[in-house]
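ugh ok fine here u go
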Amino acid sequence: MSNSPAGRSRIDLRKAINAVSDVVQNRPKPLRVFDQIHMKVGDMLMQSEIVADWAEGKSLVFIGDGDAISVCVAYMMRRKVLMFGPARITVFDFDERTVNAVMKFAEREGITNLDAVLYNCLDPFPVTDKYDCFYTNPPWGASNNGESVNLFVERGIEAIGYQGEGMVVIADDDELDWPKQVLANTQSFSRERGFYVSRMQRKLHAYHLDDNPNLQSCNLYISSLPGNEANKGGSQPASADRLENFYGRAKEPLVRYVREKKRVDPGNADDSEYDLELLGESK
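structure:
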């Protein structure tokens, strides 16, 4: 690729595209009600190479991953399309279809460093081994000044124990006001938790977004300040005041998990593919 990371050899574009195509065929269809919107394939390929280079040799946690960038990275490493990448990848997602798709794909392809866990970011982050870095492409927060972004970022910071790096995929548009406000709020939120913006790659990604096909996103990198310490209070559930307009105007979270009813053709999602487990319910 022409924009390969500095110092890296160019990848075989045909093999890379075919690998991403395999991943796209495997992932579940997006549910727009939860602000799931898929990145376009060419940008997925580019993003996967960027992520693999950034997280080389590290343990990487994804806080949500409807795009399946985690699988792209791991699969291209397995297929020797990428000769670099993270040592370990774990996906935390509230969509059981996504979790199952990751696990089944990893098993089928013999990918041993890829794992997935069912988890909703409204809940405290589960006690796990500390990761080195996190990646998230959260609901972009157009109607809540980025509070939905901040919650996903907070879970990522908790996952790395307040020390390390994060990559946040966030809306980036010079013609709209709300992406600027969300970016500013995300930066302020990160700074309050001992992180600074170390880099920003603007207007990298396009999406299959019918109502705003020109809206793009950037990679916002945050890094912990020297000597940053973990939150002594531990991970806490999301308070009610953070949930207003979470998935868009007047769209508060009511669902704890998207449950998979049965495995069907991943290229054709319908309501027989998933069920909804509401907050306060258990299964």
